Structure formats: C-alpha cells, structure tokens
Amino acid sequence: MISRHSLRRATGVLAEGGVIAYPTEGVFGLGCLPGNAVAVQRILEMKNRNSNLGFILVASSIDQLLPYIGELGDKPLARLLAREKSPVTWVVAASAEAPRWITGDRDTIAVRISRHPIVRALCEAADSALVSTSANISGRPPASSRLAVQRMFGGLVDMITPGETGGLGGPTELRDAGTGKLLRAGPKK
In terms of Cα–Cα distance, which of 15, 17, 18, 43 is closest to 30? Predict the structure, then answer.
C-alpha cells in the first residue's frame, strides 16, 4: 500500500503537470493526467516513443474512463468490468473528446480498470484515470522496481512512487473488447 504522505505528494505532482513512475500489476509505469499534453510529450521524449502509438489509461472505476471511451455495447462493457484472473487491458472505441495525444493515430483507446492497490489509490486521490505506459526506453525491457526506474530515467521523472508491482512479470495482456481477440500476449505463466 502507499502511505498518505506519498499519495498526497504524487497527486500534487500530477496536479502540477508532472510525470510519476508507479508500480502496476506487472511492471513500473510512467504516468500523468490524461488531459495534460505537455506531460504526455515529456513521457514520449523520455521513452523515445512514437506519438502515433497512443497510450493506455488506467482507472479505479469505469466512471473515470467514461469521458475517453465511445459507445460500448453490452459485450465490451461486460469484458471491461469482468474480474479476470489476470489483468487485461481492453481496446475500445475512443470518444470524440479523447485527446489525440492519448489515442495516437487510432480511433480506439486502450483502458484497464486496475486492481493494483497503488494504481487504484492514485486514481481515486487524483479523481481521474491516469496515462499508463511501461517505464522503459522504447525497445528495452520495462522496469520492475524503483531502482530500475531510477537507473533508467534518473531525474527525468518527478516522483517514483514507493511500492511493489503486482508480480505479473510483464505488461498486461491486450485484447479487443468487441471481439475478444488477443492483440498482445501477457507474460508467460
């Protein structure tokens, strides 16, 4: 779990337009508030990532994702809300309000309702979904600890949130919410 002090500090950094690193289900992520184009640009530069790829949004509830997602049918909504054994990131239609710096060149958006206690606490304290991308330089393995984030990014990140990953061992599985089609395999079990 995250201390109240660390949680207040992290949400303050986010509110001021900063970038944080935080543990997720499988790896450390880099994140910011989704409405902050400048912070998203910083993440792109840190990772040496192509802006056309878009980002994942993580949230503690569906309500935090609603401004960013388009119309959902019953099946995609059920998949998004399902309590899977392993966490799944779902690709859904993006709303007209979803910023291009989040969706990239797509008309879809990748979202996950997280069960990781630190991700949930951050989203609840910020009262917002968060941008989430693995903490790594593009093409390199993602960081799985605070120390690895520090070594990879040094002072480029405004705060590294204390805590442990959920032990998944890699980025989450990615699936199309409409069809269930596997788009990216999760870690080998």
Answer: 43
pTM greater than the 0.70 cutoff: yes
- Which residues does residue 89 pair with via DSSP β-bridges, in sequence order? 174
Q: How far apart are CA 155 and CA 131, in angstroms?
A: 19
Structurally, how many domains does the chain consist of? 1
Tokens of 102: 């989040």
Neighbours of 2 (CB within 10 A): 21
Amino acid at 130: L
Q: In what order do the strands lie in the sheet with 159-160?
A: 159-160, 20-23, 28-31, 130-134, 56-59, 108-113, 88-93, 173-176, 182-184
Return the sign of the alpha-carbon dihedral for residues 122, 127, 131, 132: positive
- Domain assignment present for residue 189? The answer is no
The CATH number for 89's domain is 3.90.870.10
| 159, 166 contact by CB (below 8 A) | no
Dump pLDDT digits (tens) for 100-111. Answer: 999 999 999 999
In whole angstroms, give the CA distance from residue 43 to residue 49. 8
